[in-house]
Structure formats: structure tokens, C-alpha cells
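Q: What would this chain look like folded?
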Amino acid sequence: MLDAPLDNPLYSLLGLSHSSPKFKELIPIGSLEPSITKISNYTYHAYKPLGVSLCFVPNKDDLILDAIDIYNGKTAEGFSPYTMNNLPCGLHSTMQAHEIVSNLREPDRKGGGGQTRLPCWIEYKFSESSGILIQLHGFEWEDREMGWTSFVLY
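A: My prediction, written as C-alpha cells:
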């Protein structure tokens, strides 16, 4: 397991109420209204111009942040690239797959690629219930220069 990025501002948001003022301090949502989607037990607040989506779960009469999706490029769904400088685990927008693995070590899990016809992905666990799943933009594991398209911090 990888050490949790306890000093990372994004990671510090996990577990907070959706009404916490820390969100406005760390993510410049300001007067930007999110696109809200409910899927099963999850409520997503997507801030597409900022390249971030916040996934909340219900807790009594409140919503608690369970995961953060960060996008590293324009998407078909309308997300812009996230441009804040507070990415966890030493990630930056131009990192390639081989650099990520070199910096973080071999992932705890990986999938996609090859005959799956899905993009490659790697996952690093911080604990049994938290980690980071990084979506790569390539389909072949031999392509060590593929970059990353998004990640989910949970």
C-alpha cells in the first residue's frame, strides 16, 4: 500500500460535508453552479469548466464527500482539464505511465489494455477503503509513454 497523501489539499476534502467552507477554499467553485447527477446512492457535483467532479454519499441528513474525479484533458462529457497545482501523489499533468510507476512503484491493481478494448488503468491503495485509480489514455501496456486522462481519489 502507498502512504496516504495526508498533506494534500484535495485528499483533505474526503469525508467532509458538502456544505464545508473548505471546498470553496481549495476548489474555486465560487458562483459556478455544478451539474448534479444522482446515480444509485451517489450524488455527483460536476464542475466541468474546472475539470473536477465531486462524488457524495448520504449520511443522515447530509452529503459526505466520498471521491474526487480529476480530468487531465477535454472530455466528450464537456470537462476541461483541471489546472490547479495541488494534485496528490506527486502527479502532474504531463506525467507518462512509466514516470508514475517509477515514482509510486508497481500498482496494487491494474487493468484494461490488450484485448479488453478498454484504456489501461492503475490503482494504488492507501488503505482498504481509500486510494487513487489513475486512468491512462493508452490501450497497450507496452506504451510506456502514454499519459493519464483522469484519476479518482477516494
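The chain has a mean pLDDT of 94.
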